[in-house]
């Protein structure tokens, strides 16, 4: 029986809050990345994903670790002789203590780069994953286990495995560049919200399954949005349009947290008043509902999916929009947000009333509809 890892952690994506002061965006970094986005399968991060995948915890969680496909088979075969190494047992114990350690380990992996068999500190990322939800850590776990990770990589010849799979990684990156529409989503969000972001990076892994997370960094007057998400899906039983909508929703509802947050914060007092009666807005019997403990978090989850509906209204025909609304309503209701239908209806009314206004501007009037 597989553990239901995502039943408690899928909702983490809304609450990622990595410390922004632990990055260093130099003037040269800013020049190279301003107005650009990139997709990367980071070598050290992929090593950490592999190490987690071969722990007992990882092997028992196919919702956390993608266990379908040849790549996972390659990993299990190649790294099988090293599954009982002490560092793998240590990672396993960390995951048992708290699944949030999945994020602390994979999120901080980018703070190091390989130089031969050694890990050297990144010039850009010092301690990028310090907190998630209400949990904070005060030491980078990659630093703590640096020598053990180096030993594992050397003994297992990880860098050879990574090199041998570069063609596969390149195909994943190419698929994103051709089909993800990140630039289109970015442009739409900045046309519809007042917030502006300077750059995006997708840190992908073939081993990521349902646990996706995003964060934003601000340093030296430069804002970077980082997304940790799986490769694009291409289900043979879905039409090309259905696959596009699924992949777009996964990415879009990560990105738009970074735009919804500012107007929500500006209207926090009103949201706390209107969404105070929790039993109206949240089905406490739904798994994961506990992770949205206050009105602001509840509202933001409604809003991030609602804004995806607005994006679809602007980019697809009416039949497609109607299907999206139905699918989103069902998904959110199953997740414990029973008022998604009326929320969406009110959102569409406001958009119709103010088609050319930034969404931030009509937040108060939109919220007032629920007070009635």
UniProtKB/TrEMBL annotation:
Keywords: Signal. Residues 1-19 form the signal peptide. It comes from the Bacteria. This is DUF4932 domain-containing protein.
């Amino acid at each position: 029986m597989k553990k239901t890892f995502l039943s408690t952690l899928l909702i983490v994506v809304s609450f990622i809050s990595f410390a922004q002061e632990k990055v260093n965006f130099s003037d040269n970094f800013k020049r190279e990345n301003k107005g650009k986005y990139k997709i990367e399968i980071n070598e050290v991060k992929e090593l950490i994903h592999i190490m987690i995948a071969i722990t007992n915890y990882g092997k028992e969680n196919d919702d956390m670790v993608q266990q379908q496909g040849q790549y996972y088979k390659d990993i299990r075969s190649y790294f099988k002789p090293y599954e009982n190494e002490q560092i793998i047992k240590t990672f396993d114990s960390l995951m048992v203590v708290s699944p949030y350690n999945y994020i602390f380990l994979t999120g901080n992996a980018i703070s190091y780069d390989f130089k031969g068999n050694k890990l050297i500190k990144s010039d850009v990322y010092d301690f990028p994953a310090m907190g998630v939800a209400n949990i904070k850590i005060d030491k980078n776990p990659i630093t703590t286990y640096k020598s053990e990770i180096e030993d594992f990589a050397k003994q297992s010849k990880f860098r050879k495995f990574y090199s041998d799979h570069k063609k596969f990684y390149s195909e994943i990156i190419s698929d994103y560049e051709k089909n993800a529409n990140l630039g289109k989503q970015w442009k739409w969000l900045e046309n519809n919200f007042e917030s502006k972001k300077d750059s995006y990076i997708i840190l992908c892994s073939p081993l990521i399954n349902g646990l996706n997370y995003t964060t934003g960094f601000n340093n030296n007057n430069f804002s970077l949005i980082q997304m940790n998400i799986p490769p694009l899906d291409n289900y043979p039983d879905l039409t090309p349009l259905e696959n596009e909508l699924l992949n777009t929703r996964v990415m879009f509802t990560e990105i738009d947290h970074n735009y919804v947050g500012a107007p929500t914060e500006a209207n926090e007092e009103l949201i706390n008043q209107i969404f105070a009666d929790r039993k109206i807005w949240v089905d406490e019997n739904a798994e994961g509902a506990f992770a949205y403990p206050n009105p602001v978090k509840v509202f933001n989850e409604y809003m991030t999916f609602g804004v995806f509906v607005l994006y679809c209204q602007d980019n697809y025909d009416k039949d497609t929009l109607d299907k999206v609304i139905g699918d989103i309503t069902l998904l959110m209701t199953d997740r414990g947000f029973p008022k998604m239908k009326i929320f969406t209806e009110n959102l569409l009314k406001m958009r119709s009333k103010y088609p050319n206004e930034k969404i931030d501007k009509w937040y108060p009037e939109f919220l007032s509809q629920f007070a009635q």
